[in-house]
Structure formats: structure tokens, C-alpha cells
Amino acid sequence: MKKYTEMNHDELLALKKELDKEFEEIKAQGLALDMSRGKPSNAQLDLSMEMMDVLKGDSNLKCETGVDCRNYGVIDGIPEAKRLLGEMSEVDPEHIIIYGNSSLNVMFDSIARSMTQGVMGNTPWCKLDKVKFLCPVPGYDRHFKITEFFGIEMINVPMTPEGPDMDMVEKLVSEDDAIKGIWCVPKYSNPQGYTYSKETVERFARLKPAAPDFRIYWDNAYSIHHLYDDNQDFLVEILGECVKAGNPDLVYKFTSTSKVSFPGSGIAAVAASKANLDDFRNYMQIQTIGHDKLNQLRHVRFFKDLEGLHAHMRKHADILRPKFELVLDTLDKELGGLGIGEWTKPHGGYFISFDSLDGCAKAIVAKAKEAGVVLTGAGATYPYGKDPKDSNIRIAPSFPTLEDLGKAAQVFVLCVKLVSVEKLLG
Ligand SMILES: Cc1ncc(COP(=O)(O)O)c(C=O)c1O
């Protein structure tokens, strides 16, 4: 098929007529499908159901140091959970704090703590005239919501397949001491599925920030979430790189088992230098008497070790892989060569990032909704919900069944075609 951008007015009009007809037919089916949030499907949740049976009324509920997990005590995580999440985060257990059920909650808390208490003895951010964050875009909407909530000014930094534009990051961070952090999803990024290159990680570790309390918010939410056994991305471990570069306190690494076990009922962790972790602990001991140790115990007894985690993630991959491939095949087959969109082809994670012709994303999302398919709101992948080009759409293939996903993908490509033709017709 000819590129849409090379069609003349009459050709476009004829095409629009055809597509309008197709759209009315699809609309008449009364679909109700959702490709908006990166949630595991029910089949994926079922993979962890045996975890519900590892702790019983007559189980030994003491952790390996003999602490009774039914009672108060051990504020920053039982040793075996630190070991498990330490292996997942590629750091020693002494560099880990185990939190509650959500890493996003820990990120929110880290910013709240920096606002009211300051970072390692520095002036609390709430006492400063201005606090800024760098936001690689497109990125994770909930990161941007946190910084927006605290009135932190967000600066867009373009993403590349190698990671954020590091020339820009280095320049801004070294010149402006109001810049206190950067949001990063370094592996199988949300929404592109990109993994930061070795050079990007090394440049991050060697940053020379103007602000002593600048931290890299390294949200490694998809660290073990591969789709393939033989085609996996590799991310250099950043905490060790920071130590090597003489910058041991530069990074907070966040992780959780949300998309390993049960989202909202997993365990979250932070990995960082001892000095940073002491800062976290000073706040934490006022905030709580401790997190859910029974859930920590349950996770360790179920997964056992890193190999157990990997074996479990392969089962997730078996469910997710056909879904990603279905969406990618549909995009290739229906939109390939038409010049009206580009998309990423991730090897892991939860998302595919789609870029339409400029000025079309909102209209595509609205059109899909009209046909009964909910997509992530256009603009959500940018700070303040403002995509300057109105072109990025995040596709989340995980939750629908394969059958529903097939229908949703067809609706999506039809909406892309229709909106693009309308745009080209002016
Ligand atoms: C990049 C990223 N970080 C964090 C989260 C949420 O993690 P948690 O459930 O641990 O709060 C998500 C969920 O979609 C995510 O995509």
C-alpha cells in the first residue's frame, strides 16, 4: 500500500470513505475493551496462588534470626527478604531496606521526606524558592504526578533507545542547583521498553551535580521482566558504578515484586548507599513500627532465591509474549510502510510506545473510546499531561485476553488510519 503521506486529495477521500465504513461496523459491535493500564492478567495472577498456601496456621512464622514475624520488630526488613530483593536489585543485603506493598509509595515518601526534612542534612526542599526535576519523556505518568503534586517544576528530557539525552542531563544537572532529581525507568522503560546502554549508566554514575542533594530516582520496576529467554536486555548495575566513580550517594534504586507476585500486595525495596539508607531509616522509624513481615516471609518461602524468581518470570513471559507479538504483528501488518506511525519493539516490560503523526494522539484515543477501546490518555506520558507534539500513545497489552487484545489492536490501527487520513486532508 502507498504511503498515506504520498496520496493525493482524491485518494485520501476515497480511503476515508472506506475507513469510515469499517469504523461504523466495528462500533456496532459494542466492544468494551481496555488497553490502558499495565496490569497483569488474571492468568498471571494465578501463577502466584500457591503463595497463599506457604504460610498456614501451624507454620513456623519466625524469620531466620528467630524474630516472630507475627509481632512488632525489625523495621527495615527480615534478612531473608533483604537477600532476595538484594539479589533482584544486584546489591548486597546491607544495601537494602524492605518496605511495604508499593515502590511508588516509597518514591512518594522519598520526595515528601526531601521536602520536609531535606536530604542527608541539606536544606529541606520546601524552604527553597524552586525545586526542579528532570523527566525523560515519554515516561511514567505516576512519576510525573508525584513531582507535580509537590509543586516541583518538571523539565522534559528526550529519551533515545540508549536512555535519556545525556548531553542535556549532564549540562542541566551540573549548572542548576535547583535540579534535585531525575526520574528513570532504566530497564524495559515505561512506555518504550528501552534499556539504558552501558555508556548511559556510566555517564549517570559520573554526573557532577551542582546540588549536593541531587539524586537519581532509578525505578527498576522491570528488572527481571523479560519476554524472551534468548533475547534479553542487559542493564549495568548503577550503585556499583556510582561507588567506582566516587559518587556513592548519587542514586536511589527502587524495586518491587508488584509484577512478579501480586500488584498492590507484593513487597517493595530501596537499594542505596549506607548514608542514604540511614537517612531513609531516620524518617521511617517515626513513620511506622514496621512493615508486613508475614508478607516478606511468604514471598521468600515461595520464591526462595533469584533462580526461583527467574523461573517464575519465565511463566509470566509465556503469557505476555504472545500478547506483545500479537499487537506488534498487527501494527506491522496494518500500519507498516504507511508513514503514519512508529512504535517500539520491546524485549520485556509491560508497554509498547506508539508515535502517531503530530497532532493525532488525542484524536486517536478519543476515536478508540468511541469504538469501545480504552487506551491510556494521550499526554499521560508527559509531565503535566502535555505532550508537545500530541503524538505519543502508550499501549498496554498485558491485561486483556488474547482474543480481546486482537480485537482491540484492530480497533487501534483503524483509528490511527482514520485520524491520520483526516489530519492529512486538513
Ligand atoms: C515504572 C513503574 N514504576 C512503578 C510502578 C508501580 O510499582 P509498585 O506497584 O511497586 O508501586 C509501575 C507500575 O506500573 C511502573 O510502571
From TrEMBL:
Family matches, as Gene3D superfamilies: Aspartate Aminotransferase, domain 1 (3.90.1150.10), Type I PLP-dependent aspartate aminotransferase-like (Major domain) (3.40.640.10)
Native source organism of the sequence: Blautia segnis
Protein name: Aminotransferase class I/II-fold pyridoxal phosphate-dependent enzyme
InterPro entries (alphabetical): AspAT_Ic (IPR024551), PyrdxlP-dep_Trfase (IPR015424), PyrdxlP-dep_Trfase_major (IPR015421), PyrdxlP-dep_Trfase_small (IPR015422)
Keywords, in A-Z order: Aminotransferase, Transferase
tRNA-binding as UniProt keyword: no
GO molecular function, one term: L-aspartate:2-oxoglutarate aminotransferase activity
Superkingdom classification of source: Bacteria
SUPFAM superfamilies in alphabetical order: PLP-dependent transferases
PANTHER family documented for this protein: AMINOTRANSFERASE, PUTATIVE-RELATED, ASPARTATE AMINOTRANSFERASE
Pfam families: Asp_aminotransf
